[in-house]
C-alpha cells in the first residue's frame, strides 16, 4: 500500500454525540436534545433523563484528556463539529454566545498543541431546536440567513485555527430522516415531496453560500461538502434492476452534482417534473450555487442492493438510506452489511464523476465491546474484529489510490466511544478508546485504550505500510 505522504490520518466525532453539557454556558437546545432514542422513535417536546446525549461522554469537560489520547495515536487530523446552538442558542439570535465561542477556541488550540489539524463540520445533525419548532427547519427559506450569520461568525473567529471545513453532514440523509438531518418538524409521513425538495434547495443554497463566504474570508482554507455514500448494486443482471439502481443513485448523486458542478442536473429536472415539484427559487440562487466545493467528503459503512421487483424489496436491518440486503455479504451486530470492496468502488465512482479530491470522513464498526483485564493491572478491549474491519477497508482505500483516485485522508467514525446517532445507545461502540458509561447512565466515564488503539497508532506511523492484504 502506498498512501500519499501528506495523507490525513485521524478520527471523527460529532458534538451532539460526545460533548454533553447540553445546557451549560449558554447553550440552547438542539434537535438532538429531544431525540432520546435516536431515529427509532418520535422526538419529545423537552429533554428527558433517558437521553444519553445530554451527558454524552462528557467531552465538553474532558477534551484535554481525549485529545492527548488521540495525539498518542499520531492523529494528523481530528474531525468534530460545532454545535450551532452553543453559538446561537435559538438559531435566530442576533448576537452569538461568547462562552460557546470560547469553548471551541480552547478545543482547537488543544488540537494544535499536538499538531492535529481540526476538520470542522458546520452542521452535523445539530439544528437549534427553536429553528425546527418555529420555522419547520430548512423548509423555511429564513434558515439561509440564520445559517449565514452563524457561518460568518465562526469563520471570523476560527479562520486562523481551522483549515478544513464541511458545510453539512450527510446532506443527502434528509431524504430519509428529515427531522434529524434537516430540522424539519413536520412528521415524515406528512411531509410532501414539494416541501422536502424545497428544504433541500435551501440547504444547497446555504452550503454554496458558506463555500463562497469561506473562500472570501479564508483564501487558504478548503471547503468541502459531505454526503452519505451507499454504493448500490443490482440484485440481478436484469436490465430493470440496473435501471432501478441508476434511479436510486441519481437521488444520492444529485447532492454531489450540485455541490461540484454548481447547477441542477437534467435527471433531477425530469424527477421534479414527473413528481409535480416546482422549486421556488430567488433570482440569485443559480448564481450562488456556482460556488463549488474544493473537495468531496463522505461516510461509508455499507453497500446495498436494488431491484425493480417489488416482491423482493426486503430492506437490510439498520440501513439508514433504505436499499435491499445483499445475500453475499455478512452483517454487523446492528444489521449493517460489511463490504470492504464497496469503499474502493465508491471512491472510483466519485472520482470518475467529479474529478475532485475525496476525503473519507466516516468509516467504522459499531459493536458490543467487553472490557477485560489487560494482564498488566489495567483494562482493555480485545477488539480484533474492529482491527480486521478497518484493515480490510483501508486495504481497499489503498487499492483506490493505486487506481489513481485522489484521496486526502481517512477519519474513522467514533474514534472514541460515543452515543450512536441512529439508536442513541452507548453499547454500540466504534472507538479505539473505551468510555466507561452504560446505556442506563451508570459508569465512571473513565477512558481505556482498546487493542485497536495500538494497531491504529502503528498504521499511522507507517503511513499504511502495516496493513495486511
Structure report:
The protein has 469 residues and is α/β, with parallel strands linked by helices. The chain has a single domain (8-461), classed as Glycosidases (TIM Barrel, Alpha-Beta Barrel). It contains 14 helices and 14 strands. The chain has helices spanning 15-18, 59-72, 84-87, 98-113, 129-135, 142-158, 178-182, 193-217, 239-261, 266-274, 285-289, 340-354, 384-402, 451-461, and strands spanning 8-12, 77-81, 117-123, 164-168, 222-229, 232-234, 295-300, 304-306, 358-362, 372-373, 379-380, 407-413, 433-435, 447-449. An eight-stranded parallel β-barrel has the order 1-2-3-4-5-7-9-12, surrounded by five helices. The chain has a two-stranded parallel ribbon with strand order 6-8. A two-stranded antiparallel ribbon has the order 10-11. Strand 10 and strand 11 (379-380) form a beta hairpin. The longest helix is centred in the middle third of the chain and has 25 residues, at 193-217.
Fill in the keyword field for this structure:
469 residues, TIM Barrel, alpha/beta, two-stranded parallel ribbon, 37% helix, 14 strands, GH
| H/E topology pattern | EHHEHHEHHEHHEEHHHEEHEEEHEEEH
CATH domain class: Alpha Beta
Number of helices: 14
Can you tell me the CATH superfamily?
Answer: Glycosidases
Question: Uncertain segments of ≥5 residues (pLDDT<50)?
Answer: none
Distance between the termini: 9 Å
Strand order of the largest sheet: 1-2-3-4-5-7-9-12
Count up the domains: 1
Report the major sheet.
8 strands, parallel, barrel
CATH topology: TIM Barrel
Question: What percent of residues are in strands?
Answer: 5-15%
Return Rg in Å: 21 Å
User: What does the oligomeric state look like here?
Assistant: single chain
In the CATH hierarchy, what is the architecture at level 2?
Alpha-Beta Barrel
Amino acid at each position: 500500500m502506498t498512501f500519499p505522504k501528506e495523507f490525513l490520518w485521524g478520527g471523527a466525532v460529532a458534538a451532539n454525540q460526545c460533548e454533553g453539557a447540553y445546557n451549560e454556558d449558554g447553550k440552547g437546545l438542539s434537535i438532538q436534545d429531544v431525540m432520546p432514542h435516536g431515529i427509532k422513535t418520535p422526538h419529545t417536546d423537552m429533554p428527558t433523563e433517558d437521553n444519553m446525549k445530554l451527558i454524552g461522554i462528557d467531552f465538553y469537560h474532558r477534551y484535554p484528556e481525549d485529545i492527548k489520547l488521540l495525539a498518542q495515536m499520531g492523529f494528523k487530523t481530528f474531525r468534530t463539529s460545532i454545535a450551532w446552538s452553543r453559538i446561537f442558542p435559538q438559531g435566530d439570535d442576533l448576537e452569538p454566545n461568547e462562552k460557546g465561542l470560547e469553548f471551541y477556541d480552547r478545543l482547537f488550540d488543544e488540537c494544535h498543541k499536538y499538531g492535529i489539524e481540526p476538520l470542522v463540520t458546520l452542521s452535523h445533525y445539530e439544528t437549534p431546536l427553536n429553528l425546527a419548532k418555529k420555522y419547520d427547519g430548512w423548509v423555511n427559506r429564513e434558515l439561509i440567513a440564520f445559517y449565514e450569520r452563524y457561518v460568518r461568525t465562526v469563520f471570523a473567529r476560527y479562520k486562523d485555527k481551522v483549515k478544513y471545513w464541511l458545510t453539512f453532514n450527510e446532506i443527502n440523509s434528509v431524504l430519509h430522516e428529515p427531522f434529524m438531518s434537516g430540522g424539519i418538524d413536520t412528521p415524515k409521513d406528512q411531509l410532501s415531496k414539494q416541501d422536502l425538495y424545497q428544504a433541500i434547495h435551501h440547504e444547497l443554497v446555504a452550503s454554496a453560500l458558506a463555500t463562497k463566504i469561506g473562500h472570501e474570508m479564508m483564501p487558504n482554507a478548503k471547503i468541502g461538502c459531505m454526503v452519505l455514500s451507499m454504493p448500490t448494486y443490482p440484485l440481478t443482471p436484469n436490465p430493470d434492476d440496473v435501471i432501478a439502481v441508476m434511479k436510486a443513485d441519481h437521488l444520492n448523486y444529485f447532492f454531489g452534482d450540485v455541490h461540484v458542478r454548481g447547477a441542477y442536473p437534467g435527471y433531477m429536472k425530469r424527477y421534479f417534473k414527473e413528481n409535480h415539484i416546482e422549486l421556488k427559487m430567488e433570482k440569485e440562487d443559480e448564481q450562488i450555487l456556482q460556488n463549488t466545493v474544493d473537495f468531496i467528503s463522505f461516510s461509508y459503512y455499507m453497500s446495498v442492493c436494488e431491484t425493480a421487483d417489488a416482491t423482493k424489496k426486503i430492506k437490510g436491518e439498520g440501513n439508514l438510506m433504505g436499499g435491499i440486503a445483499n445475500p453475499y455479504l455478512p452483517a454487523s451486530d446492528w444489521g449493517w452489511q460489511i463490504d470492504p470492496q464497496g469503499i474502493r468502488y465508491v471512491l472510483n465512482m466519485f472520482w470518475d464523476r467529479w474529478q475532485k479530491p475525496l476525503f473519507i470522513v466516516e468509516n467504522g464498526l459499531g459493536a458490543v465491546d467487553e472490557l477485560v483485564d489487560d494482564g498488566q493491572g489495567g483494562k482493555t478491549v480485545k477488539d480484533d474484529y474492529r482491527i480486521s474491519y478497518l484493515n480490510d477497508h483501508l486495504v481497499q482505500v489503498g487499492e483506490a489510490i493505486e487506481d489513481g483516485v485522489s484521496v486526502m485522508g481517512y477519519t474513522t467514525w467514533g474514534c472514541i466511544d460515543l452515543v450512536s446517532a441512529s439508536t442513541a445507545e452507548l453499547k454500540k461502540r466504534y472507538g479505539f478508546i473505551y468510555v466507561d458509561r452504560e446505556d442506563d447512565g451508570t459508569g465512571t466515564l473513565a477512558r481505556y485504550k482498546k487493542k485497536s488503539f495500538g494497531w491504529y497508532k502503528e498504521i499511522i506511523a507507517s503511513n499504511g505500510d502495516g496493513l495486511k492484504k
